[in-house]
Structure formats: structure tokens, C-alpha cells
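Shift notes (night). Ran Helicase HerA central domain-containing protein while the centrifuge was going.
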Amino acid sequence: MDKFLVNAANQNHPLRILSDFLNNEDSVETAKRYNESRFVGYVLDIGYDEITIITCDPFKINVGGIPRNSLLIMVPDSFEQNGTSIPPHFTLLRVLDSAPTPLTKEVQQTYFELQKKSMPELDIFTQSELQWGALKTQVLGMFYPHPREADTVEFSGDLNNYVSAHKYKIFSPDEPLLDLVSNATVPKENRFPVGKLRLTECRLPLPNKKIPNVDIFLSTNDFKGCRTAMFGKTRLGKSNVVKLIAQSLLETTMTSRNVGQLIFDINGEYANDNPQDDNLSIRGAYPDRCTVYALAPKPNTPSHPLKLNFFHTPYSSKQVMNTLIRQSGRSGSDYVDAFISVDIPDFTEVNAIPQNRMSDKKRAVRKIQIYFALLHKCKFDCDESVVRTSIPSAESVSGFNPAFAAALRTAAYGFSSLQVPNAPNSLATLQTELEVIHRFKKSNPNDPTLRSTGSGNPIFDQEDNALLEMLEPNPGRSGFGILLRYRTYHDQRAGDYTTNILQLLDQGQTVILDLGNADEILMAYFARQLSEAVFHHQTDKFTNNNLGNHYVQLYFEEAHNLFGYNDNSDDTRIYRRFAKEGAKYHIGMVYSTQSPSTVNSDLLAQTENFFIAHLASQDDTNKLAKVNIAYDSIKNDILQAKTAGYMRMLTRSHRFVVSMQAKKFTPPKSQ
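Came back to this:
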């Protein structure tokens, strides 16, 4: 009756698979169909961390072989103790290596003697003795019924108890059991198939034995607000797995739209299809869910310009210019550093200056005018009619007219032997007037016309002088020539891309920044600038209690270029903040690089999910094992296996490393 009640309670339990498996093994043994048996052997030595098992050649052949890193299960000889049935459970083992037996030396002596005698035909008794051996296995944990939740499996990374070795049996799990151990701990919610179970790189089957065909699933809940690492040598499938993760989030948020994704696409492979390599992009697969911003638009890829209108947002564009100058190594000169220190006010800031501070407002408007004249001299194109009306007014100082006093204009043009023209009404005439006055000022610094008739203060302050020195440099200085190369970052049609991208992310869109063919300076700038914008945007939502269930996921390739191992500079501070604070603000990140030893240690230590392809350096595998002990036992496998797409996956839901062959990214059938 007790056994009947237990069976009835477990009728729909996932561990019913184990009961059916063991019942089938009993039937196979009774019918003496030994070639169908999954029995592997017995326990020779048992401990909490490692278990040594004894097996023989026929057992290995029956189960299709027992390669290193394959999975075995250990079950009690009986689930009845003292007349009481105990719940079905099993211990999961990973095969590590061969192990010596008490007869190892005698076996070696026998082989030695046989070799000396030219290996005659072995008698049946000697064959029987020599076919036995031992394997060392690692205890991964136990699967058992959840104590409180019905029809649910719980996994523990340790053993609650063990008894004498002879009271256990070892089996090689069949496909249903392999599916259970690989996917039972993955939440049913937001599941997505990522590949097939692949226990070894070698796919040569034994005669009449098939390789297991088991799907591997992940839950996209494991990636929201978490850090995910892709490590492995180039061309081994890291980008393909990144596409699968992005696809999984697109698929599982089709209705909720509660995850926005931002992909920094340094090679253009997520934004643009590549028919020659049969390589479909994320945008190509999900055109309605993806928006592309491109530095250099491709003919067949609809995109928005990933550029600034330097005339539209003077403060932001000047900050971009400052960053690019520093990163190019052109800073260090007094006049260049003085230019970098200048802040150009935005239009809204100028308009906010009250009327009782009209002199301050005039100075602010003139600063914008000098900056725009400098941009014009560097051939930053614009629609002058639009720019003219966008510049705030401060009494007579408006548009392109700085409204300098008549005495100053007369003295300056007279110094250059030029007739005084009408007030400037274009960027060209504004540039000319500023150059003429600056030349006059340098030669006549104490001329009274260079001071305000009201306050007596200089008309040009230090920041104005820094701008004018870049516009009309002293002989021997590059001046405005330094800025010519930055025209590629300007587009007069561009809007405020940062604000637009943040809005798209809030709508659950996947935004792809096509940075193909961009130099490292530009890639680093956009990555940092947008990362900071996302962080501050999410922080604002957090402080205003508006985060809700919305997440932002960022993707970085060649991560060592953005946040290297020993890089603790201010430029990489945002990525360290992602590592430490990203979860709180619902910011997740996926980063990929060839080597774990090149990534910032703060980020590496906080990473929850790992996808590991082939690594060629023992330093890298040792670093990986230090970061996550789960990889310690498979270091040799990572060093030796080089098949593309062969990954060792560990997520928040997977309590041990799962070896799998990642599927190739393909669009959904409905596309």
C-alpha cells in the first residue's frame, strides 16, 4: 500500500522518468537483453566530492562509450528502507579520468608478460580479468523531489548522506534523463532552445549506438539585469551565440516589449545581412523590432545617421570634440587645452538667463556665434537659415550678428586696411569679422575699443580668446586644422540620437549601432557615451520608482578594447558601475572577447552567465576556473576542443556546466 501511494503521488512528477528508467533496466536484466542495458558499474570508493566507479568493456560498449566529461547517475540499490519507500532521487556524476584499481599493478604485469611473448591469444578467463577498470568521477549534485512544490525537481550541489559503496549502482542516463539533468532547473517561463547537448567533441558513434539528441534550453530571465560573458578564440561561434541571446529576448518579449536591447556592432554583422556567408543579421530577421544607427549607411540597410548635428546641440557637440581631441593625443598644448576647457552653452541654457543679466546673455550668445564660425571654417555644413533662427537673441546680438560696437569694428577693419562692411548676416561674414577683430586684438591688446563702454570689462573673456585662437591661430600652430578630421561625426540632418535611442529602448526596441569600419576612438566614444546615457536614464527611473518590469540589455564585442584587465581609468568607470550596480537599475550586459584574462577584474567577478568556446592558454583557463569553480574540472577539455559552436554553458539556472553545440542563428519561420 505504501508503495502504491508513493507511485500515485509521483504519477506526474518529472522524476517519474527515473522510475521508468529503472523499471526498464530491471526488465532488460530479466530478459537478459544486456546490449540494451544502461548499467555501467559499481562504486569502488565514495566521498562527498569524488566517487570512483568500477566498470568493464562490455558495459562501456553497451552504453555507446564513456568519454571524459560524460554524465553518469548514481542511484541506491533500492528505494525501500526498512519497509518504507523513499522518494526517487539520483546523484549526478561527471567523468574526470581513469583511476587505479587494487589490481592495477597485476594487470600491468600481465600485459608486460604477454607483450614479451608476442601477445598470444588470450584465454577467456584472462580476458575477463583484463576488461575491468575504474573511473574517477566528480559529484555535481543531487536531483530529488522538491520538499514543498508538487511535481517539481530540486537540485542541490552536495550530498545529504552516503552509505556503503556496495549499496549503489551506476548508470549512463538515456535521452529523457539527459534532458532532465540539462533542463530541469531552467524555468519554464521564457524558455528558448539554444542548441543540442554535446558531451564530447568527438562524434564517432560506436556500432549500432546513436549519439544522444537532447535539446538545451535557456531562460531569458537569466540574462535580464545580469552580466554574460562569451570567451573563446575568433571564428568559434561567439557572435552566433550573441545573436541567439538577442533573438531569445526578442522572441520571449514579443508581447510584453519589456526589454530594450542596445548592440554595439563593430563589424556590422548584426545590422547587415551577408548572403555570401549565409549570415543573416538580427535586423534582417526582425526588421520591425530593430532600429539601426549607422556611421556609414549601407545601401540595403535602412538606418538613421549615428552622428551629431554640431550646430543643433552646441554643448554636446563640443563635449564630443573635447573627447576626440584627448583620445587622438592632440591635447597637451596650452592653447589646445584652453580650447578643451571651454563650455559652449546650449540654447535652452541661454534662453533661461533672466533679462536683468542681459550682459551675461550677450556674452553667452557671442560664445555660440564664435563656436559656429569655427565650425564653418572647418567646413561643417549646415542649413544657415535654420541655424540663424535657432541662435537665441540678446537685444541686438542675434543670429550671426555679434553686434560689436561701431568704434571697435572701425578700428579693427582699419587695422587690416579694409572697408567696414555691413553687420554679418552669414557664417562666412561672421567668420571674417571675428578673424579681423582677433588680429587687431593680438596687435593692440590694450586698445580701449576692446572694452565695454558701460562696465569697462574686456569684450572677450578667456574662453572667447581660446575659441578665437583656434579660429585664427598664431603662426606655427595647427589651430582649426586639428578639428577638420571630426567632420565625419557631423551630419546637418542628424537629430539628438541619444534621446531617440533611449526612447526606442523604453519601447522594447533593439537598437543596433553599426560601427563597421570605425576607428577605435570612435567606437570607444559611442560605447561609453551611450552606456553613460543608459545608466543615468535607468537611474532616474529607479529614483522615481518608474523601473517597473522593464530592462535594458547592452552587447559589447571585443570587450578588452573597452574595459581591459588593468584599466581603472575614468573612461572605463561606467562599465565597472554596470558590474556593481547594473542589476539594481535593470541593466544587463553581454560582452565577448577572446580571453578572460584581458577583461576588467571587477566585471569578471560579477559575471553570472558564461559561454566558453576553445581557449588556447592555460593562463586563461586557470583564470576562468578562479572566477567560477564550476569550470575547474573541464579545463583540459576547453584547451583541446576547437569545434566552432561547441560551448560550455553556465547560467544562473544551470548549477553545473552544460556542454552543448549551439544551433546556428536562423530567423523565425514566420519571417
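Residues 223 and 588 are 7 Å apart (CA to CA). Residues 520-543 form the longest helix (24 residues).
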